[in-house]
Design brief:
Its cofactor is FAD. The chain is elongated. The strands form four sheets. Strands 7-11-6-1-4-5-12 form a seven-stranded parallel sheet, with helices on both faces. A five-stranded parallel sheet has the order 14-13-15-16-17. Strands 8-9-10 form a three-stranded antiparallel sheet. It is an alpha/beta fold. It starts with 8 loop residues before the first strand and ends with a helix. It binds flavin-adenine dinucleotide (FAD). Flavin-adenine dinucleotide binds next to helix 6, helix 7 and strand 16.
């Protein structure tokens, strides 16, 4: 088969407990943009047990065709049957591009599938684009410990495969007038494909914070001074019903848990409002928050680089300013 026989963009849709994961919808948004540039269609593949009902939702989010592999064996994620099923879908559909979320499941599944179909995989991408002339997918990801951004192409094999970090792409608006094709695929799974036994499923703590989903984030930097000094920040977060996040300096100092770190080696966030308090604006931090809708920065130094990405800057002591803002909100 030659490279030109591969057509279209295929997004792997991750569902957990029959809930479509946000990253998959984000990838449909990006996939649509890539498919349009290539002049091809956008397909989605969803797998699981009793999940056919979810297919329509994917059409509302931009998929023109949804391939469904609905099988009892796929009730819970297990590496072997999922790898076999996705490999079968790719071998049948022959997409030019395959996108998978860089979640714990995606990071397990995508490399195995790429090895089986003898193509390359660029993992953990933060930027995707297409060079229309060559049809190369330009897959950009942090490299050398996050010190450079590398753009990688897969010139000699198809499909071009990439896993993409949650939170970096934008999903399309849900449009219930959209129509598409839903195709059920028999991936030829047999009982022995499930070569592990699941003894117990321990559900993630629902109260666990997910700063990627927060509408408002108040983010602490080293300039807050100490864990104790962060009290005004927590008080404002209560008033605004915001989540608290931080720079790596704050995480390294033990003032916040690692799951709250924003940036290149933390999480990529895109809240409606991001308030950076005592954060200098190092490139590795900015990479994780610059797409926020509105950025307010509080820093005691006039020339802190965070002001370059802020929509509104306040020069002064962060603790004092946070306390004043909280007081004003309580009065109003
Ligand atoms: P600092 O750079 O020390 O800045 C503190 C700021 O607070 C200063 O601008 C200062 O003017 C201001 N300030 C001081 N006192 C006050 C006060 N009373 N009121 C108001 N402002 C005050 N960083 C991340 O955040 N996320 C990452 O994911 C990340 N990944 C990295 C990956 C690599 C490979 C490397 C090399 C670095 C990474 N970093 C990351 C670290 C990054 O380079 C910076 O060191 C870090 O972001 C600095 O954190 P900060 O802004 O809180 O602290």
């Amino acid at each position: 088969m030659s490279l030109v026989d591969y057509k279209g963009v295929l997004v792997y849709i991750e569902q957990r407990d029959k809930e479509i994961q946000k990253v998959s919808l984000e990838l449909l948004g990006k996939g649509k943009e890539i498919a349009d540039k290539l002049g091809e269609g956008l397909s989605a593949v969803i797998m699981g047990n009793d999940i056919t009902g979810l297919a329509q939702e994917l059409i509302y989010h931009g998929a023109e065709k949804v391939i469904v592999v609905d099988d009892k064996i796929l009730e819970n994620f297990a590496t072997e049957p999922y790898t076999k099923a996705l490999t079968a879908v790719i071998n049948q559909e022959k997409p030019e591009v395959v996108l998978v979320g860089a979640t714990s499941i995606g990071r397990d599944l995508a490399p195995r599938v790429s090895a089986r179909i003898h193509t390359g995989l660029t993992a953990d991408c933060t930027v995707l684009d297409v060079e229309e002339e060559t049809r190369h997918l330009l897959m950009t990801r942090p490299a050398f410990g996050g010190n450079i951004m590398a753009t990688i192409i897969c010139p000699d094999h198809r499909p071009q495969m990439s896993t993409v970090r949650p939170g970096v792409m934008v999903k399309l608006d849900r449009d219930t007038s959209k129509e598409g094709e839903i195709v059920l695929l028999d991936a030829g799974l047999v009982a022995s494909d499930l070569n592990i036994e699941i003894l117990e499923i321990v559900k993630e703590d629902k109260k666990k914070v997910n700063i990627e989903d927060a509408t408002i984030l108040i983010s602490a930097g080293r300039g807050m001074g100490s864990k104790e000094n962060m009290e005004p920040l927590y008080r404002l977060s209560e008033e605004l019903k915001a989540e608290v996040s931080g720079s790596r300096a704050v995480i390294d100092n033990g003032w916040l848990d690692k799951e709250r770190q924003v940036g290149q080696t933390g999480k990529t966030v895109r809240p409606d409002l991001y308030i950076a308090c005592g954060i200098s604006g190092a490139i590795q931090h900015v990479a994780g928050m610059e797409e926020s809708e509105l950025i307010i920065a509080i820093n005691k130094s006039h020339d802190a680089p965070i002001f370059d990405v802020a929509d509104l800057g306040i020069v002064g002591d962060a603790s004092k300013i946070l306390a004043l803002v909280t007081e004003e909100i309580r009065k109003s």
